[in-house]
Design a protein that fits this description.
Elements: H1 12-21, E1 30-33, E2 36-39, E3 41-49, H2 50-60, E4 65-66, E5 75-83, H3 88-95, E6 99-108, E7 111-123, E8 126-133, H4 136-143, H5 148-151, H6 156-167, E9 171-185, E10 190-202, E11 213-216, E12 222-229, H7 235-238, E13 247-248, H8 253-261
Antiparallel strand pairs: 1-2, 3-8, 3-12, 3-13, 4-9, 5-6, 5-9, 6-7, 7-8, 9-10, 10-11, 10-12
Protein name: VTC domain-containing protein
Domain VTC: 41-259
Pfam families: VTC
């Protein structure tokens, strides 16, 4: 069983939950929660430069292909992240808690054609993502503090999000914007993405407003490269990745943007108006 670190930062109940789930098989990246199997994917992150991206793409184009869903080679992602009264998502990430989760609402290119409520769970370098569709008017209700409709949703994720909003005061924290260039292999079992111009939106939580001002959160010329795969990563792809000397990182775009903008919220940022 894996050793759980940072016990002082979590309660006894959370610690026991971690111990139970520490029996997850690292070989296949799967876990069991409440009697259901959740199939985790591996996620590796690198902080690289623009020049490194260009070199990698020259090598990748012979083995991978651009995601067919990406018109013009990429798309813009905007995510509104939520956190509870205790800022658990942020604090657990900073404390190095092994198992954690985040809620967000995600759109693409400022459009309301595809809106998703997502919950992303992490177990070390493994990830598991759930999603449920939302309508624009439902997002507006959530931002207005009207959560009742979630309780009657046919999607369990929405009903669980309702409980979080009501019992744990889950509220909007920050908007994360970036431009993604996605590459795929083997019909999506291997996915490499370059997230460029990572920035935090300020001035409100209206994710459909393209005029929101933004603040860059990375050094100029830096971007986040993510490698996601199920089970094993082909050796030919491993050979493409940045060498050991590269900046393999646990960077969180949410944490970067939250830290960039939390001063705007004042002390009682969680309080309702």
């Amino acid at each position: 069983m894996k050793k759980i670190k940072n016990i002082s930062h979590v309660g006894i109940a959370e610690h026991m939950k971690q111990l139970k789930n520490a029996e997850i098989s690292e070989r296949v990246g799967t876990a069991e929660y409440a009697g259901t199997a959740e199939h985790f994917r591996n996620e590796w992150k690198y902080l690289i430069s623009t020049s490194e991206k260009e070199l990698l793409e020259l090598r990748m184009k012979h083995l991978l292909k651009k995601d067919p869903h990406a018109s013009d080679g990429g798309y813009m992602i905007r995510s509104l992240y939520f956190d509870d009264y205790w800022n658990s998502a942020y604090e657990e990430k900073e404390s190095g808690v092994l198992m954690r989760k985040k809620y967000r609402i995600r759109i693409y290119d400022y459009s309301d054609r595809s809106i998703k409520l997502e919950r992303k769970k992490k177990f070390g370098s493994y990830i598991y993502k759930e999603s449920a569709p939302l309508m624009r008017e439902e997002v507006e209700k959530i931002l207005a503090g009207e959560y009742e409709f979630l309780l009657h949703s046919p999607y369990s994720l929405c009903r669980e999000f309702y409980i979080e909003c009501v019992s744990n005061m889950m509220r909007p924290r920050t908007i994360v914007d970036y431009d993604r260039v996605p590459w795929i292999m083997d019909t999506g079992t291997v996915r490499i993405t370059f997230d460029c111009d990572v920035r935090a939106a300020v001035g409100g939580y209206d994710i459909f407003d393209p005029t929101l001002a933004t603040l860059p959160v990375l050094e100029p010329g830096k971007l986040v490269m993510e490698v996601k795969f199920t089970e094993l990563l082909p050796q030919i792809i491993r050979d493409l990745l940045p060498p050991q000397s590269a900046e393999f990182t646990a960077v969180s775009k949410y944490v970067l943007c939250y830290e960039k903008t939390r001063y705007l919220n004042g002390f009682e940022y969680w309080a309702e108006n």
